[in-house]
Amino acid sequence: MTHGSQQLENAKESIFELIEFRLDRNVNGQVISGRYGINVAKVREVVRMPKINPLTSRIDGLAGVFELRGVPIPVVHLAKFFGDEQASISEHQKVLVAEFGVKRAGFVVDSAHRIRRVRWSDVLPPAADGGNYISSMTLVENNEFLFILDFETMISDLESMSNKRTRRSESLNFQADSTVTSKSADSQAPNRSGAPLILLVDDSPIILKNTMISLQRHGYNVVTANNGQEAYDALKVYAVNKNIMNNLAAIVTDLEMPKMDGFTLIKNIREIDALANLPVIIHSSLSGQSSKTTGSSMGANRYVVKNDIKNLINVLDETLGWKSNVSIGA
Predict the structure, then answer these.
(1) pLDDT of 84-130, one tens digit each?
(2) Where does CATH 2.40.50.180 sit in the chain?
(3) Assigned CATH for 185-320
(4) Cα-based distances in Å from 206 to 179, 238, 271, 275
(5) pTM score over 0.85
(6) Is there a smaller number of Cβ atoms within 10 Å at the N or the C end of the chain?
(7) What is the pLDDT of residues 122-179, one digit of tens each?
(8) In the CATH scheme, what architecture does the domain 3-170 have?
């Protein structure tokens, strides 16, 4: 079975695959070994510890850059990024090389154990004290939690630190995106009468806020949901009783979310007659062709790589046949 066929079968069963890895950290003088995961669709390969060239300017958690088949890859030392100042790099560790849309990075881990299949219904939101970089978690053997990390937010924060602290000649090549800078949504234009309403679904508070601000700046009205289940519950009410979303024009959804993933959300939407023709656009860092094919088979209309905001707006304008008098760059 090809990877694309496997992903389609997983989506139908509401299952995703992750690479489980171990990370050892020194916490208050005690070494804590934690179990973590990353969606297998984001991992390009796992490599033995390469020669890492350090950067002149120190950024906490950034080990440097290594070359993989002629391509420079920034390397994040996860233990140090999470505050373990005593953490060092050894030849016994591994580097997970991952891609998130147009971004690429390597992550130093202590070991990569296995590929684990997890039901989305078993994926839980992070605990309140989970910090900024745990997107979700799931219970595994021996009543242990496996934490799924928010690598996109991690890279975004490192880019921000890099822009502030490093020379231009040494700036990191994660590849730039068009995420807007964080500003209060209250400072944006109020809801515009007659403008299309977009339901934006994402479990990352930063991505949700930044994308919402960008769409509002362009003239769209926006309501948000933190995961597929929350969006689906609201849409079922909408389908029966045109409530506050009475001008709903399209849904923009992430794929990887706790409680209900994006594939399942799209499938459920298409099973509601009143929503059968509502445009659904996937906005995800899972940029492989198999994800696009699976999304299309579930009923998605279009696919946009996460954080390509200009393209997302263009796709919405084209799909809805609507054009704001507000400039995209405003």
Answers:
(1) 888 889 999 999 999 887 778 999 999 998 899 988 888 888 876 65
(2) 3-170
(3) 3.40.50.2300
(4) 10, 26, 30, 28
(5) no
(6) N
(7) 888 887 665 678 989 999 988 899 999 988 888 888 877 766 654 443 445 554 333 3
(8) Beta Barrel (2.40)
